Amino acid sequence: MDDVATAGLHMRYxxxxxxxxxxxxxxxxxxxxxxxxxxxxxxDAGASSDADAVDASFTDTDLPAxxxxxxxxxxxxxxxxxxxxxxxxxxxxxxxxxxxALIGGSEEGQTLVICGxxxxxxxxxxxxxxxxxxxxxxxxxxxxxxxxxxxxxxxTYVDDDALSGMNALLVADHIETQGRGVSAVLGFPDDQGDFxxxxxxxxxxxxxxxxxxxxxxxxxxxxxxxxxxxxxxxxVMYGDRGDNYDYSCSQGSCNGNxxxxxxxxxxxxxxxxxxxxxxxxxxxxxxxxxQWNTLSTYLKINPEDPYGAxxxxxxxxxxxxxxxxxxxxxxxxxEDLTELPPVWDRLKFGAWYRTAGDVRRLMDDVYVAVGPGAxxxxxxxxxxxxxxxxxVIISPVYTWTDTRIEVDLRLADLVTxxxxxxxxxxxxxHRRCAGVALLH
Length: 440
What we know:
6% helix; 6-stranded antiparallel beta sheet; IPT/TIG domain-containing protein; 23 strands; mainly beta; 8-stranded antiparallel beta sheet
């Protein structure tokens, strides 16, 4: 470890020890909920009381620990390995599953240590974050993100109605983009990948969207859906033309395995699906017009049976609606593409919109994790029961073990909120621990 990293570690250690004396919050019986069928039915109860707390028997503690790598603001963030570090002694022994103590600062950007038991050994290994605060309104999206880098940045920073700060990303506008999407591309460079990018069969994506004009497509308005297929917000692919297998093969490089998060198929029906994948994962009935919609999708292909059942969780929340959730445990890859590896390697944001109407669509607060432990994360929400929250924010992870997690605390727009805030831990199997109060 170099001198800068060592100094940073010592600084975090000193802050944590100081905060231990003045700002340690302890809750007992803050358990993590376990699905009745862990491999196919990820479930989130968001319990916040002794009556709701449920003991969990975790099954992911034997997964391999990720490699340790230094983080930088410019590079893709990689979670540190689970080898004990000098801060391991700061957590008291937990008597039960779940979060037992919070040690450290409770303000934006401060180091926070989360103590407990049952978090699982596997945290996120490769992740990306952009709140779009690094750019200037009116300027094109730059390569460097809050954590990590865009592979092919597209779109424009705007400040007319951001969510998590001053800026958001304009992904579609009837004037600036002629109504079509910008297709900003995110991938993680890897020389071993077929197209120079890291392959992954597991991902978690969290983002927020809002329309300031018409919903995309024909016959729509600011408060009504279009009559046709009109929106592909995030398009996950293997290869640059994962949307068109036959065409890409005719050009000498077969691509495929695309899935869209989520495509609007008309009249308010949404589906996680693609041209070369079939999921039948319908998620209608959740959209909030003219408001910020915060969405997330977790999807994992079973490497032992890639054309069999997958694990999937979709969540949505917005002001006044609470949490909408849909789980999925069927196949997503078509067997006529068995000559391709059962993986993805990139995501396209603001990928496609039908050219029609007075559209102005924004995106903000993007977080992506791929590979082992992609679902594992630390969230701050504005309700003690997660299912009643209307806002959730993810904090970048520094270290993750079964009993201790260290993060850079993010509060974003909740810094000025009058709501009580609660911290949640979600493990690698997408099981969420009961929330604990975060003093702010």
